Amino acid sequence: AREQGGGRHAWFDPAMHARVVEQVRLEHDLRRALERGEELWVAYQPIVEMVTGGLAGFEALVRWNHPERGNIPPGVFIPIAESTGLIVTLGAWVLREACRQIAEWQDKRLPGSANLFMSVNLSTRQLNDPDMVALVREVLRETGAEPSWIKLEITESAVMEKAEQSIRLLQTLRGLGIKMSIDDFGTGYSSLSYLHKLPIDSLKVDRSFVMAMHQSEENRAIVRIIMDLARLLGFDVIAEGIETSADANLLRALACDYGQGYHFARPMPAADADRLVGAEHLP
Ligand code: C2E
Ligand code: CA
Ligand code: CA
Ligand code: CA
Which residues are in the EAL domain (predicted)? Predict the structure, then answer.
């Protein structure tokens, strides 16, 4: 028994034990949620064109409404889904939902208005999944979504983990006409030497940089340098985490292409996003 050994059994760490139990429970519940398909839903956060303020697209963000615990943040369950492999099923489900939704929204756009894009997050696991291309093709066919409407977001670290393999997958997906974006740019240990080799269309400036901009000229310089780099390499830039009009103005002055953040709109249920699709400008 534990108490007999005194200090010798210091490996039994109650806090760690509780964490493990919690993870196992969440894994079990997430598996059930994926089977039943009632607790998970997708929120859509508008992305605007900085110059005009018009709606440019959405980012699909998964939500879990747990029957006993209520809303569990993706920051909690996505890592569990990643480590258990459940992310492959979860990710496929989000992709299908998002593609179905954008196809529906494109249908109700006024004739002559620009296409909307739908950004979907891809995890490291999905990036290394040999069935990924087949899944994407199948989902496009099933939902009627055009490849050019879809933008897949991947992090630098996910790409760098198996760079050669990831680059081949990105090339194939891009060959289908899908857009690729590097998410949370600036936070991973990215090698700048790799950046120009990546078959991508845009960089997403991590919100930590955007939120620090108002603090100092140095922080603004970092964002400016990311913009310059992106332009040099021919990528669009999306800034995330824009919370104030001051941030939006700074980014506009830097000729940032697209913006996303609470200043414009929060992630919202499809029914609310639906109302924005028909309108020319955000309220
Ligand atoms: P992310 O891809 O960087 O997504 C942006 C996150 O920033 C979202 O958090 C969004 O709600 C939040 N956000 C947007 N605007 C603002 C703002 O102005 N201020 C602040 N403070 N936050 C803002 P969320 O929805 O909690 O998602 C967290 C992370 O979970 C995502 O970060 C992404 O890495 C992951 N995630 C969410 N949905 C999915 C998914 O379907 N698949 C995968 N693989 N990962 C997902
Ligand atoms: Ca993202
Ligand atoms: Ca991000
Ligand atoms: Ca992030």
Answer: 23-281
Please state, in angstroms and rounded to a whole number, the distance separating the CA atoms of residues 207 and 187. Answer: 10
Task: Collect residues with CB below 5 Å from ion ligand 3.
Answer: 183-184
Tokens of 196: 């120009």
Closest ligand, as measured to the CA of 119: 2
Beta bridge partners of residue 179, listed in sequence order:
151
Q: Which ligand is nearest to the CA of 205?
A: 3
> What interface predicted TM-score (ipTM) does this complex get?
0.97
**Ligand 1 atom 12: the closest Cα is on which residue?**
241
Task: For residue range 112-162, list pLDDT tens digits in order.
Answer: 788 999 999 999 999 989 899 999 999 999 999 999 999 999 998 888 888
Q: How far is CA 66 from CA 63, 73, 104, in A?
A: 9, 10, 28
Ligand 1 closest atom vs CA 242: 18
Task: For ligand 1, pick from 40, 88, 121 the residue to mutate: most ligand atoms within 8 Å of CB.
Answer: 121
CB 240 within 8 A of CB 205: yes
Nearest CA to 132 out of 101, 183, 178 is that of 178
Quick one: tokens of 20? 């493990």
pTM to 2 decimals?
0.94
